UniProtKB/TrEMBL annotation:
Gene Ontology CC terms: cytoplasm
Function description: Thiol-specific peroxidase that catalyzes the reduction of hydrogen peroxide and organic hydroperoxides to water and alcohols, respectively. Plays a role in cell protection against oxidative stress by detoxifying peroxides and as sensor of hydrogen peroxide-mediated signaling events.
Location of the Thioredoxin domain: 2-154
Family under the similarity heading: Belongs to the peroxiredoxin family. BCP/PrxQ subfamily.
The name this protein goes by in its record: thioredoxin-dependent peroxiredoxin
Pfam families in alphabetical order: AhpC-TSA (PF00578)
Annotated EC: 1.11.1.24
GO molecular function per UniProt: thioredoxin peroxidase activity
Top EC group: oxidoreductase
Tree of life domain: Bacteria
Native source organism of the sequence: Candidatus Ornithospirochaeta stercoripullorum
GO biological process, one term: cellular response to oxidative stress
Subunit composition and interactions: Monomer.
Amino acid sequence: MIEEGKTAPDFTLPDENGNNVSLSSLRGQIVVLYFYPKDNTPGCTKEACSLRDAIDDMASLEATVIGISPDSSESHVKFREKHSLPFHLLSDPKHEVMEMYGAYGEKMLYGKKTTGVIRSTFLIGKDGTVLKVYKKVNTATHGEDVKKALEALR
């Protein structure tokens, strides 16, 4: 897992429209980078909508939200449209970026060990430094939690 104070690893992944997005292209902005397991599942939908609902406040704090899951660009298009998500969703089907960030691996799911996406979020500063790491996420309040953290960083 990437630690606070370290430089966030750069990456390039396709967004919902098939356009490549690089973390380095977002320098100068604060990036809310969140990893989630699957489009249109209850927890992931709750988390995405929570971030959506806080997007205006985050934008006023100069933050950009980016979501990453293993889903296809086509799945991301449907997920964004269905829930009016105003941020990009990137596809990482081989889990390469997820593994770099420690967001893929062994986890407990319903009391059983399994391997998969570990729901986590990284606040990345304008200079590319990791400011905050969320290893545990409350999907219902995540947008508000992130907004408060961004306000505290000001």
